[in-house]
Design goal:
Layout (H helix, E strand, L loop, with lengths): L1 E4 L9 H4 L7 E6 L8 E7 L5 H15 L3 E4 L2 H14 L6 H8 L1 H10 L7 E4 L2 H10 L4 E5 L9 E3 L14 E5 L4 E10 L2 E10 L13 E5 L5 H16 L6 E9 L5 E7 L7 H9 L3 H9 L6 H10 L2 E7 L4 E5 L8 E5 L10 H4 L8 E7 L2 H18 L1 E4 L7
Parallel strand pairs: 1-2, 1-4, 2-3
Antiparallel strand pairs: 5-8, 6-7, 6-8, 9-10, 9-12, 10-11, 11-14, 12-13, 14-17, 15-18, 16-17
Helix pairs in contact: 3-4, 4-5
Length: 405
């Protein structure tokens, strides 16, 4: 039996299709109103999935009743929860020390720096004066972000120390130097200490901060003959060794590559990347990485050699996601030709203005899709062309923001 923590963003994932051997042997904790699909023997819903105590209480109730052999967590918010539960009930997997290192952006950089990896200059933040002092000592832009955040929520890029006074520091934060460079991500997977696959990709434009200017977020995998691919993969495994990682782990690491070619850590998570990344990886690995991870975490057989072989010969892949605008959807696009996994996450009349717009995350896409091609130039051309088509297909009635702060 397996306990699955199902964030509302993961509603409807086909766990029974992925884990057919576990039919009737799955139990879940999720939010009220979230569909969990078939194959579950029991489920407990909580009113607020952001309430740690409520989720943990529900999970403990299910664990005591059914004694599952594993806890499966796919969302960032569930990483530390699952680790805590494993420790309490003696279950294998990522423990609390590892979960903290992968979630706390200060702690992860301390581990990485101690192992000789290049990290931005950084400091803990408890009040605005900490940011002001940091920027006074290091002139130039700085980035302020929640230590345990995800999806680029709560991230601020400051041009001047005086801007710190306007920030609402309602949780633990860190400040770090702004690194000029292209942001890349590496999605790596190892089992019992042996790497299975690692895919290095480059974000386009402003990367995970693109949504702050209503710009699309795109990413394309690097050709594995590109020397940068090998360097990024090597740096990822060095990072995994630097942190208190378990022998079996899936990581989503992000690195800046500067104009001089230096690789600088941005951050790393002990989970599969969000948004369209799983769909993109499926075309490279030959299996949905969430299915792969669910089976490994549950102790079920997986043909890892097939994954290794597929990732070595698969076509390159790219994804694009369009963020919401500050307004109401009045027209929807059609799926362009020659795209895969086209998903619309909105509808005509959907209102994204106001507080919903202000709280949007980097992966809150109204539409996303994947393109593939063996030729890197053709892959880029497909990504650019489809982005233009889908963007033009949307119609928005924008909110009137005159007079707003």
């Amino acid at each position: 039996m397996i306990l699955v923590l199902i964030h509302p963003r993961n509603a409807g994932l086909p766990f029974l299709q992925w884990l057919p051997e576990e039919k009737g042997q799955l139990v879940a904790v999720t939010a009220v109103g979230t569909g969990i699909g078939e194959g579950f023997a029991d489920a407990v819903s909580v009113a607020d999935y952001c309430d740690d105590e409520a989720v943990l209480a529900a999970a403990r109730k299910l664990i005591r009743r059914y004694r599952p052999r594993a806890v499966l967590a796919l969302a960032e918010i569930d990483v530390e929860r699952a680790a805590l539960l494993r420790g309490e009930f003696g279950l294998a997997g990522l423990d609390t020390a590892a979960a903290s290192a992968y979630r706390d952006k200060v702690l992860m950089k301390e581990y990485a720096r101690a192992a000789g990896l290049r990290v931005p200059a950084f400091a803990r933040v408890s009040e605005a004066a900490d940011i002001t002092a940091f920027m006074a000592a290091r002139p130039g832009r700085a980035v302020v972000k929640p230590r345990g955040g995800s999806g680029s929520t709560g991230v601020h890029v400051l041009e001047d120390p005086g801007e710190a006074a306007d920030l609402m520091l309602d949780m633990p934060y860190e400040v770090e130097e702004f690194i000029e460079g292209d942001l890349h991500h590496v999605d790596g997977f190892r089992v019992e200490g042996k790497p299975v696959a690692a895919v290095a990709s480059r974000y386009g434009g402003a990367a995970c901060l693109a949504h702050l200017t209503d710009a699309p977020l795109g990413s394309r995998s690097l050709d594995d003959t590109d020397p940068l691919h090998e360097r990024l993969v090597e740096e990822t495994w060095r990072l995994v060794e630097a942190l208190p990682s378990p022998a079996t782990v899936f990581v989503h690491a992000e690195f800046f590559v500067t104009g001089s070619g230096e690789i600088v850590l941005c951050e790393v998570a002990a989970r599969i990347g969000g948004g369209p990344i799983p769909a993109m990886l499926r075309h490279i690995l030959g299996i949905d990485p969430r299915e792969l991870w669910a089976r490994v975490e549950g102790g079920l057989p997986v043909d890892l050699d097939a994954v290794r072989k597929r990732s070595a010969i698969a076509p390159r892949a790219a994804f694009c996601g369009l963020p919401p605008q500050n307004g109401r959807v009045v027209r929807l696009p059609e799926a362009p030709r020659d795209v895969h996994d086209f998903v619309l996450n909105t509808f005509v009349g959907d209102d994204w203005s106001g507080d919903r717009y202000r709280r949007r995350k980097s992966a809150d896409f109204v539409a996303s899709w994947v393109v593939t091609d063996a030729d890197p130039a053709a892959l880029g051309a497909k990504l650019d062309a489809t982005t233009e088509l889908v963007s033009a297909g949307f119609g928005w009635e924008l909110a009137d923001t005159r007079g707003s702060a």
